[in-house]
Specification:
Layout lengths: L2 H24 L6 H24 L4 H22 L1 H19 L1 H24 L4 H4 L2 H6 L14 H21 L6 H23 L3 H34 L6 H33 L6 H29 L8
């Protein structure tokens, strides 16, 4: 193929890319998803054409032209990546809250499943302390010592503990979310099982008259941590429900559609786990009064409520059809 044939074959695509460059520069705030896909396709194709020209037509004008065209396209993409912070702010400020409001029923179901497990574990051990060895995992049943609570305050490696806790909690959330592909059965098990452990440990401390102290070490990080787990669990339940009751669509279609939404819910929980991990690593084991720990817990609840309320207001502002009292 000579250079004239090459240009004639691909000229239309290059012209389209030039037009899209102009459009995207002028109407950046009104870009549609289809526009981005088309721009990316033309950019990739032009980049391949440039590579071909550099090999076979290195001294032709078309090579210089394509080099400039591809460079402009690349610079536009790079600049859009820099502005991705706006997309992140939009996601956590509006999009994530919107997803929570849409899927709140599944999140509530996740909370109820956890609560059922917690009550079962609590009353089982409350009735007979020896049940701790059958309700709780062996390492927890043997390792929990209420009399040692608070003895090591201020003596732990806070940064190491925080990182370890964050990693563990995110793993639990991912499992709860991924459990959706098992029609939600694994998600249900994880929620009930984790509730069983929390309730069982609470009963152990109840028998030692350490309930006030126990919750002082749980609620500062627990309010955010459990909220994040309920959201992740709700995402898994949502996916599982759509697979179990696909309606007029195939299960494959529902999996594809609901997985995307559930992944967004899961991603939204990551900052919550980070905050919970920081609190659990630095504040929970800190040598401060129990009352101060409860104050931290109260502030986290207020923060969560404000986040939802503000996000809902922003969502209503961007979309007037949203009913604020829904």
């Amino acid at each position: 193929m000579n250079v004239k044939q090459f240009v004639k074959q691909h000229r239309e695509d290059w012209q389209q890319l030039e037009q899209m460059l102009t459009i995207l520069h002028k109407r950046k705030r009104k870009i549609k998803g289809s526009d981005i896909e088309q721009f990316n396709r033309l950019y990739q194709k032009s980049a391949q054409n440039l590579s071909y020209c550099q090999t076979y037509f290195p001294k032709e004008d078309v090579t210089l032209y394509l080099n400039e065209l591809v460079s402009k396209s690349h610079n536009l993409l790079y600049r859009d990546q820099i502005s991705s912070m706006k997309q992140i702010r939009h996601f956590f400020g509006v999009k994530f809250v919107g997803l929570l409001l849409e899927q709140w029923k599944f999140i509530v179901v996740a909370m109820m499943l956890f609560t059922i497990g917690a009550l079962g574990g609590f009353f089982s051990i409350l009735d007979d302390p020896q049940n701790a060895y059958s309700v709780l995992p062996e390492n927890i049943a043997q390792g929990v010592d209420p009399e040692q609570l608070g003895k090591n305050d201020g003596q732990v490696d806070a940064s190491l503990m925080s990182t370890s806790i964050m990693t563990n909690n995110i793993q639990v959330a991912i499992l709860a979310f991924a459990g959706g592909v098992t029609f939600g059965l694994l998600t249900v098990y994880l929620l009930i099982y984790n509730g069983l452990i929390v309730g069982g440990i609470a009963a152990v401390f109840w028998h030692h008259d350490k309930t006030y102290e126990f919750w002082a070490y749980i609620v500062p990080h627990g309010m955010i941590e459990l909220t994040a787990i309920f959201i992740a669990g709700g995402a898994g339940l949502l996916m599982g429900y759509k697979l179990f009751v696909p309606g007029h669509y195939s299960r494959g279609h529902q999996l594809k559609q609901q997985a995307k939404r559930s992944v967004q819910l899961l991603l939204g929980t990551i900052p919550l786990f980070v905050i919970a991990g920081v609190i659990e690593g630095f504040i929970t084991p800190a040598a401060i009064s129990l009352e101060a720990k409860y104050i931290v817990a109260f502030l986290t609840v207020v923060g969560l409520i404000l986040y939802i309320v503000i996000g809902k207001l922003l969502l209503a502002k961007k979309n007037p059809t949203v009913i604020l009292d829904s």
